[in-house]
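Sequence only, no structure available. Ideas?
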Amino acid sequence: RQRTVPCEAEDCLVPTPCADGTPAANCPVDCVMSPWMPDSVCSVTCGEGVMDEARHVTIQPKNGGKACPKRLTRQRTCQNAPCPVDCKLGSSWVNVGTCSATCGGGVQFQSKEVVVTPKYGGASCDQQQRTVDCNKQSCPGDCEVSEWTVGACSASCGDGTLTRTRKVIRASDTTSCPELSSVATCNLRDCPVDCKLGAWSPSAPCSRSCGSGKIIES
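Reply:
I predicted one. Tokens follow.
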């Protein structure tokens, strides 16, 4: 007996003719290229850089099929994690508010403008604020004194003392004046130290055991 069953073996397949009727063996075969693949690492470790890519021919053209492109390498942009951005402050100090006192010495807060805010792990802003003295002039009715006058050091070398003094410019009936003199230590330079030798002493026995000889001393 006999029967017919479907077959899927490759040798059972009948080649399909070309659209124009040309035998399958003579059909045009277009070039087939591989996908673009990385051919180098990114040129930078952070931010935007460039990297090389390459491709190759996987199927050569035949029978007048579409030719392969000549370009087998190219460059493209690559993006890594953002680069750290350090803080940048303005160059000028700007007063914040007003002086804490109108006379007699006060404190003024100052700050610098943040021109660039730190990002992505960049350095933080250092010394963005500070305080400075302000309105140091004496208040009306207070005792007013001159600036300090500093005397000479009492010793030209080694430890000495120096005295600074100031005078009362305007006395006050309501407030006492601050101290008018003070003493501080001073050291202009180290004093020279001269060489000092000890007494002579024998450093070897006498050259003779009797009579007159010589002995070395140091």
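The mean pLDDT is 85.
Hope that gets you unstuck.
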